[in-house]
Design a protein that fits this description.
The chain is of the alpha/beta class and 152 residues long. It contains six helices and five strands; from the N terminus they run βαβαβαβαβαα. The longest helix has 13 residues.
Length: 152
Amino acid sequence: MENTIFNLTLPVAIGSDHAGFEYKEEVISFLESKGLQVKDYGTHSKDSVDYPDYAHPVSTAVEREQAAFGILICGSANGVAITANKHQGIRAAICWGAELSRLARSHNNANVLCIPARFVDIPVATEMVETFISTPFEGGRHQDRVRKMVCL
């Protein structure tokens, strides 16, 4: 897997709630099979939990450049995306297909991929992760738009 964007010497930060737990485990296996390091921020079971407890640490790791990028998984991906996007410097994108994952990277310079476990299957989720990792940010006209996202 070629990458010209993310610093893959850093781990990938990943987290989920109970609805995303099985997907998180599969995505971790997928990333490790590609030789990537992973920092798992939980949850570690299917027991009901609150998604902000996992979205905040993943976002903080990306924000502090302790992780190459982040992946968050919950039932709809809305809760984790809303939470992640409260962090300055985080551009969390809900994706439900590889094309959206590609556009999130190439046009929005997304650094957290949010996966809706109740709406995609695991092969689609791993395809989105692969696309997210391998797609560069185009810059150019998109750079000005991304710059305008920051709240001052």
